[in-house]
Design goal:
Layout: E1 2-4, H1 14-22, E2 30-32, H2 42-50, E3 56-57, H3 60-68, H4 73-76, H5 96-103, E4 111-117, H6 124-135, E5 141-146, E6 159-162, H7 167-173, E7 179-185, E8 195-200, H8 204-213, H9 217-220, E9 225-231, H10 235-245, E10 249-254, H11 264-272
Parallel strand pairs: 1-2, 2-3, 4-7, 4-8, 5-6, 5-7, 8-9, 9-10
């Protein structure tokens, strides 16, 4: 059963949920939480775990993931406060940035970079994989996807997954890495990342669909890092695109062969993002325009 918590009368009173759990097999329930401070407080979540309610999320897209990959206690143990007693009260949840900075104040902060699709299926999963593979040559980097298991099809066991609800806890736990890449898909929580790149696949159908769904789409992307992905546009096309959309393109990435170990265009992109180690020790190309002979 998929149960929207707001459909339960007086749901912010944990005793109401407790009464429900007595009469139902909660292992077969996925609880869709709201965004209220009480429901998302550490104490409320801890008491859900105490009742045996392990499958809960705030993200509707995560429901499908939980159907196929139900949580066990191990997946939610970080929410369980074993000394938790008493009435639920509103407890502000520390932001991931606060917790992370406390943990790693002795060194430069982890760069948490979200990769988000703006047009549908703009390639966030494959690009996250390629960026992780390329950064791994010079940096301590991990990659995680949200509310999905698409990484499993890439046959790379170093690629990880989590849910939107667990993302902040996950980021704190993994803050010892230099870089964390987060595949946000279409609707992942950008607020958990300290940098986000926004992917647009500039095909006519996808762009028209984007504008019909939200005419202010490009207005909302003002001052964001917009990346054209799987792009066949040349420099003049990009200038025309920027003029028509009233936006600024940060970088243009063409179709890439995901079987290759390294892509010069991704080196260029990542160096522009500040990952300068990738520029160390590179061979000079002798000024060849097309680099046909190697």
């Amino acid at each position: 059963m998929i149960l929207d918590i707001t459909a339960i009368k007086d749901y912010q009173n944990i005793s109401t949920i407790q009464s429900l759990s007595v009469n139902m097999d909660m292992s077969k329930v996925i609880l869709l939480l709201d965004d209220s401070e009480i429901v998302n407080s550490p104490r409320y979540l801890s008491q859900l775990v105490s009742m045996g309610i392990y499958n809960f999320t705030r993200n509707i897209d995560a429901v499908r993931f939980l159907i196929d990959n139900p949580n066990t206690y191990k997946d939610v143990a970080q929410y369980h406060q074993l000394n938790d007693v008493g009435v639920v009260e509103s407890v502000p949840v520390k932001s991931v940035m606060d917790s992370r900075e406390e943990k790693i104040s002795s060194r430069p902060p982890t760069r948490i970079i979200g990769i988000k699709n703006v047009t549908e299926h703009a390639g966030s999963t494959t690009l996250t994989y390629l960026l992780k593979k390329q950064l791994s040559m010079k940096y301590d980097v991990i990659a995680v996807e949200i509310d999905s298991n698409d990484f499993s099809y890439l046959n790379d066991k170093t690629l990880l997954h989590t849910t939107s609800l667990d993302l902040n806890s996950y980021l704190v736990k993994e803050a010892h890495h230099e870089v964390i890449l987060v595949d946000l898909k279409n609707d992942g929580p950008v607020s958990s990342c300290n940098e986000v790149i926004y992917l647009i696949e500039p095909g006519l159908i996808k762009l028209n669909k984007l504008i019909r769904n939200d005419r202010r789409a490009f207005e909302k992307l003002k001052d964001k890092k917009i990346i054209l992905n799987r792009s066949v546009l040349n420099e003049q096309d990009i200038r025309d695109f920027e003029y028509e959309s009233r936006s600024k393109i940060y970088f243009n990435i063409p179709y890439l062969d995901d079987k290759l170990d390294r892509h010069p265009v991704l080196d260029e992109f990542l160096i522009k993002m500040g990952f300068v180690r990738l520029d160390e020790g590179k061979e000079e190309k002798g000024g060849k325009l097309f680099n046909i002979f190697k």
